[in-house]
Each structure stands twice: as C-alpha cells, then as structure tokens.
Design a protein that fits this description.
Layout lengths: L2 H21 L3 E8 L2 H11 L5 E6 L2 E7 L3 H18 L4 E7 L7 H17 L5 E3 L1
Length: 132
C-alpha cells in the first residue's frame, strides 16, 4: 500500500482496532487487489456479511474489515468472494489476510502485516490468497 492507501486504511480501522483491544473482540482484515473494480462492488454486496466493512483504497485495492471474526472465518468469506469474482472475471485477484493480534501496538502494525501477505500473494503464482 502506498502512503495514501495506508492513511485511508488506518483511519477506517482505528475504531475497530481500539474496540478489539479494549473488549478482546477478534478482528480480521483483508486487502484485495483486483482489476475488476465494479465487479468487486457488485459481488461484495452479495458475498460479505452486513457487518463486514469494505473500502476502496485506490489502485484497484480494497480493504475489508471482518468485525468479531477470527482469520479462519474471514478466510471462508474471502474464498467465497474470490470464487465468485473468478467466475465472472478473468483478471488476477490477489488477497492478503491477517488478524489483529494482542501484540499489535497500532492499526498500522496490522496493516503492514496484511500488506506483506498481499505482496506474497502477488509473488507466488500458485497462491492467490495468503494468510499471515
């Protein structure tokens, strides 16, 4: 993520991050990179839960916050979304997923980790979804 994308993501995630820290509520986040911008918006309205939040970050990237969700549960939602996009779009889709950890000192720490997962997904041609 570039500086602008990191700022947008940090602002969006800040409240959930502190809620997780205070009440020990699990939160997972994903960054999805796809050339299918309009398709993503259409499908995400059908594939994600009403409590999940997504935000366009720019440069064909989206941040998804899965509130009250461990990363294993968010992987299922992302896999469903991934399969729906793949059926409708021939473009590559790369996804990084992570969970906010007790050791994370800020939302930026979590966002850096999910960004590493996204970069790994781009580099590994046999894996489109990477979980860290």
């Amino acid at each position: 993520m570039n500086d602008y994308e990191m700022t947008v993501a940090t602002n969006m995630m800040e409240l959930d991050f502190y809620r997780m820290k205070r009440y020990s509520i699990p939160i997972s986040i994903a960054v999805v990179e796809s050339k299918c911008e309009n398709l993503f918006e259409i499908i995400s309205n059908r594939s994600l839960r009403k409590t999940d939040i997504f935000q366009f970050l720019g440069d064909n990237k989206f941040l998804i916050i899965f509130g009250a969700t461990h990363h294993q549960q968010s992987e299922i939602a992302i896999s469903n979304l991934f399969n729906e996009i793949k059926q409708s779009c021939m473009q590559h889709i790369f996804i990084g997923i992570t969970e906010v950890l007790d050791t994370d000192s800020s939302s930026e720490t979590t966002l850096r980790r999910v960004n590493v997962a996204l970069k790994m997904a781009r580099k590994l041609s046999n894996k489109d979804i990477i979980v860290i």
